[in-house]
Design brief:
By secondary structure, this protein is of the alpha+beta class. The protein has one domain: Bifunctional nuclease domain. Helices cover 45% and strands 24% of the residues. Helix 1 packs parallel to helix 3 and helix 7 packs antiparallel against helix 8. The longest helix has 16 residues.
Length: 172
């Protein structure tokens, strides 16, 4: 998963499992699985109990792992819940909640990415700009693995995006 800095050129790359990546991709692409995924279920529970996800905070990086927490409120009560970053992001996308991290994490872990230097002139900008996921940053093996998983999960929209990115990489 690649999180883009708002109005910036830094990207935070976070390794997530295939099910979490697919769940995030479903939401980003506006696809709906036949049955609710875990992140959809969590969003429904929040809504039913009047709980608001105020924000997700990626607050620490240690031994190759990002640590995150969800800041929630219900009425005048505020709580923080520790979460895997992939789950927190998946839920934040569904609740349209902001995702934050520290400047220290961005300075230490982010990569600088100038989209103009690799933007394919023939690709519409809205097709390449998927909020948090930028498939151009993945290598061929990663793309092929995601493509295989997308096909097995019958997510043909994601599969076509991954196929197109693999084709672009083959031309370079």
């Amino acid at each position: 998963m690649v999180l883009a800095e708002e109005d910036g050129i830094r990207r935070l790359m976070i390794v997530v499992g295939t099910p979490e990546a697919q769940s995030i991709a479903f939401k980003l692409q506006g696809s709906y699985p036949p049955r609710p995924l875990t992140h959809d279920l969590f969003r429904s529970l929040l809504h039913q109990f009047g709980i608001i996800l105020r924000e997700v905070e990626i607050y620490k990086y240690e031994n190759g792992v990002f640590f995150s927490r969800m800041i929630l409120s219900q009425g005048d009560k505020n709580i923080q819940i520790e979460s895997r970053t992939s789950d927190a992001v998946g839920i934040a996308l569904r609740t349209k909640s902001p995702i934050f991290t520290t400047e220290a994490i961005m300075q230490e872990q982010a990569i600088v990415f100038d989209e103009n230097s690799i933007q394919d002139a023939t690709t519409p900008e809205d097709e390449r700009d998927h909020l948090a996921l930028d498939y151009s940053l993945l290598n061929q093996d990663e793309l092929e693995t995601l493509l295989k998983d997308a096909i097995e999960g019958e997510d043909y929209e994601l599969a076509s995006l991954l196929r197109d990115e693999l084709k672009r990489k083959g031309k370079k």
